[in-house]
Design a protein that fits this description.
The longest helix has 26 residues, at 271-296. β11 and β12 (207-212) form a beta hairpin. The protein contains eight helices and 13 strands. By secondary structure, it is α/β, with parallel strands linked by helices. InterPro entries: Metacaspase (IPR050452), Pept_C14_caspase (IPR011600).
Length: 297
C-alpha cells in the first residue's frame, strides 16, 4: 500500500529582523489541515517545521535532514510533498571559467547558538532529488521570492510573456529532463525566478489578518473544486487571481506535459476509500490470527 508523507515548513522569522513575515506559519498550518482532511495524509506522516521549535529545529541543516529522510524512506508508488513558505533569495555569481550563474536559495531558521540565519541552496535541493527512487511522486510547493525554475530540467507549463509587476516574466526555460527521477516531479512556485512573492492584510470579521497571496489562494481554489482539479487547471486559475491582484506575481508550474494534467496531489481522498482500507486491514488481521490459531493447535 502506498504512503503519503510531507515536510511542511512555515517561517515568519524572529522579530529582531527587518524582514519579519506575518502570514506563513498560518498558511502552512492551513495546508496541513487540507492535507489531512482532503488528501488522505496521516498526521504522523506530516513533519511540520516552524518558528519557535526548540534547539533551532528549523535551520537549513535540520530541514534538509527531514527532506532527505522523506525521500530515502519512500518507495515506488508513494506520494511525498515538500512545502516551504518564507523568504527566498537569488544571487548571481561567476565561476572560475567566467560563466555567470544564478543561485537560488531558501532562507531558514537560525543556526543553533550562533543566532545567524541559515540557507538551503538550489544545488542542495537537487542533490536530494537525485536520491529519489523510481516511481515516487514528488511535489514541491515553494511560497517564497525567486522560486521559479528552482529545479533544473523541469518544463514550465504556463507560458508567460511581457512585463507584469516588478520583474520580466520568463518564457519556458530549459528542456525537459528525461531522467526517471524527474518524470514524477512537480514544482509549484509562488512566482518566477526574478519576481517576489507577496503577503497581504485582509479584514476578516472586524480583524486584520495576514494572508499569503499564493498559498491561501491556491488552497481556496482546491477546496472550491472539491479537491479534484488538475495541476494545470489549478495554476491557470491561480494566475487569473494574481493577474488582477494589487500585489502582482506570476505563479509557475514546472513538470512534464503528462504530469501537468494529473490531479493535484492525486485528487481528494474519498471517505469510502479510507473506510475500505480500514476494512481490508481488519480482514487481513482476522485471517492472520485464524491461521496462527490453526498452527498453534
Amino acid at each position: 500500500m502506498s504512503t503519503k508523507r510531507a515536510v511542511v515548513v512555515g517561517l515568519n522569522y524572529n522579530a529582531k529582523y527587518d524582514y519579519l513575515l506575518k502570514a506563513y506559519i498560518n498558511s502552512a498550518k492551513l495546508l496541513c489541515e487540507v492535507l489531512k482532511e482532503d488528501f488522505g495524509y496521516e498526521e504522523e506522516n506530516i513533519c511540520f517545521i516552524h518558528d519557535g521549535r526548540p534547539f533551532n529545529a528549523n535551520s537549513g541543516s535540520f530541514i534538509l535532514s527531514q527532506l532527505r529522510n522523506l525521500i530515502t524512506s519512500s518507495i515506488a508508488g508513494d506520494e511525498i510533498l515538500f512545502y516551504f513558505a518564507g523568504h527566498g533569495n537569488s544571487d548571481i555569481f561567476i565561476d572560475d571559467n567566467g560563466v555567470e550563474h544564478v543561485q537560488q536559495s531558501l532562507c531558514c531558521g537560525e543556526k543553533f547558538l550562533s543566532g545567524s540565519l541559515t540557507w538551503i541552496t538550489d544545488k542542495e535541493l537537487k542533490d536530494c532529488l537525485n536520491m529519489l527512487a523510481e516511481g515516487v511522486y514528488f511535489t514541491m510547493i515553494l511560497d517564497c521570492c525567486f522560486s521559479g525554475n528552482l529545479i533544473d530540467g523541469l518544463k514550465q507549463q504556463l507560458t508567460c510573456k511581457g512585463r507584469r509587476g516588478f520583474a520580466d516574466i520568463l518564457d519556458v526555460v530549459g528542456g525537459e529532463d528525461t531522467r526517471q527521477q524527474r518524470q514524477l516531479v512537480s514544482l509549484f512556485s509562488a512566482c518566477q525566478r526574478n519576481q517576489v512573492a507577496w503577503e497581504t492584510r485582509e479584514l476578516v470579521n472586524g480583524q486584520i489578518k495576514p494572508r499569503s497571496v499564493f498559498t491561501d489562494t491556491l488552497l481556496e481554489i482546491v477546496r472550491n473544486k472539491g479537491g479534484c482539479i488538475t495541476n494545470r487547471e489549478l495554476m491557470t486559475e491561480l494566475n487569473k487571481v494574481c493577474s488582477v491582484h494589487r500585489c502582482i506575481q506570476t505563479p509557475g508550474l514546472f513538470c512534464t506535459d503528462d504530469h501537468s494534467y494529473s490531479l493535484f496531489l492525486g485528487g481528494k481522498q474519498p471517505k469510502s476509500d479510507a473506510l475500505k482500507s480500514i476494512y481490508c486491514v481488519a480482514i487481513a488481521f482476522v485471517l492472520t490470527y485464524s491461521a496462527y490459531k490453526k498452527i498453534s493447535e
